[in-house]
User: Fold this.
Amino acid sequence: MSTLLDKIWDRHTVHRGAGGTDLLYVDFHLLHEGSSPQAFEGLRLAGRTVRRPDLTLATEDHVVPTRGLLGRSGVAATMVEALRRNCEEFDVPLRRSGTDGQGIVHVIGPELGITQPGRLILCGDSHTSTHGAFGALAFGIGTSQVEHVLATQTAAFAKPKAMAVTLHGDLPEGVSAKDVALAVIGRIGTGGAQGHVIEYRGPAVEAMSMESRLTLCNMSIEAGAKAGMVAPDAVTAEYLHDRPYAPVGRDWDEAVASWATLRTDDEAEFDRRVDIDVTALSPFVSWGTNPSQVVELSGVVPDPAAAPDPALRDAAERALTYMDLTPGTPMREIPVDVVFLGSCTNGRIEDLRAAAGLLDGHRIASGVRMLVVPGSAAVKYAAESEGLDEVFRSAGAEWRTAGCSLCVAMNDDSLAPGERCASTSNRNFEGRQGRGGRTHLVSPTTAAATALTGRLTAPSDLGARR
Ligand SMILES: CC(C)[C@H](C(=O)O)[C@@H](O)C(=O)O
Ligand code: SF4
Assistant:
């Protein structure tokens, strides 16, 4: 009896190492400018080539500007230039910024149909867990492993344990996969899934769109998991059909038939199980400086004294100092300066639609700056063809080109010290959005509702106010 993890692991194992480390075949390798330069340099020094450029794809996402063109000088230009030179020299296909098909690596993989059920997908980036939404095994690797994959199309790992996170019930209106992800991390902690691959299961997962599943799997890494996954089903196949890298004709039929075997057997044992009833969930928001420091938006800033152990109490105290928050303050009373809608967590078309649905015909609060950054060029075009860009602009938000943007202060977008931001991204670490910047992780609709009122606001709070 095997779990989905066992099945994919076994199919990819080319050598079982003595010390419990297996050598796995890699189906697809994604690259970006942030984590690939040393790997290419290593190849060059060793006189090696890229073994399977056809199973490799690079994109420019972390450092690219999302307003205007890439400059000719500066750190970003140097990093992007290095990636372009490396891709050219090693024959690796590259999605350049400013062209079709470019975007955040975890947005374009699924969009192009590269991310397929049963595949092993690696990338030098922690949020590679995103791709598990398709029933792929996908995780982040370090630079030396990137070099190894480039040279050999294989990588060595110790097999992680399997953890089931089962979501029971139906998600209430206005509560999204992002809220579920924050609720899960709030429950199990940032180390709660350490050493495990999470398989999300249950009726609430089956009812989710691919994009919601991507959001859920994206955040797995924030619970310490190696990866997140969802068994493929009809929703998965429907999403992939006709995508540029998806199989066609007979190959498609065979692929779909083989995907049906990619499920955990009924009697298979998980190393750990967590059950969550989503029926009573409401929107979540982070108050602290790691993604487990969350509360329901209807709640208050917690008192560190109530933390269950001294380590958590210290962490909470430090976080509240950094965040400049006082225990007992209702979350709904916390004002924000900036709202960020985007990232590989929530920068897809459904996220933009959901936020635009609330903003349509309204203006964001004065004094609030809102950045809307599509996760890919394709998301941007799709949004523009639906008129969403107009909705955002008319509401007073900035409409940008694709990139990581304010998710990470590695590009032109950052918070000023002390600025407070409601952000649809996945990390609220100190300085993540800029030195001294304060991040509250939220869902796209909470971000939109917050932009309208200027204070942390759940979508359902808006009714009474307008
Ligand atoms: C820069 C990159 C390697 C990093 C990651 O590994 O995740 C980034 O994408 C992030 O989200 O922190
Ligand atoms: S959007 Fe954020 S989390 Fe995603 S890859 Fe870029 S920096 Fe990392």
Observations:
- The chain is about 35% helix and 15% strand.
- The chain has a mean pLDDT of 97.
